[in-house]
Amino acid sequence: MSSLHLLAGQAVAAALDAGTTVATAESLTAGMVSAILADTPGASGMLQGGVVAYRNSVKEEVLHVSGSLLASAGSVDADVAAAMAAGARTVLGAGIGVSTTGVAGPEPHDGKPVGTVYIGVATAAGAEAFGYSFAGSRAEIRGQACAASLERLLAALAAQA
What we know:
Elements: H1 3-18, E1 22-26, H2 32-38, E2 47-52, H3 56-61, H4 67-73, H5 78-91, E3 96-102, E4 116-123, E5 126-133, H6 138-160
Parallel strand pairs: 1-2, 1-3
Antiparallel strand pairs: 3-4, 4-5
Helix pairs in contact: 1-6
């Protein structure tokens, strides 16, 4: 079993124990987080849904991320990650929203270097984002971002316990 599957199993169990639901908003990972959660037995009891928001228009129109924020900061930004997580939580009616945005490469994006990643987490208490700098291939960076999002989800679940 991979480390991603182990993290997902822990997250599913923790969410079920807490009686809460989770929604995802993924740009960089394009559905990997929700897919790895869904691979886990019991996920139907906690995974509310997910939005793959690869384009800014989806971030704005579906997740309600401010167009002015996207225009000024670009899509790879801590505030955008927090807004994406909050949008997923609200739009999908979940207890916790988790988001990913970043640059997997091979070229920089919005002035940010390859490996720049932000993970957003939103709960009833508010939304926050966490910045990372990963190295490796496009697939490796996306995998590291997926793992980081599961770790942040676990931390948010532990904080609610």
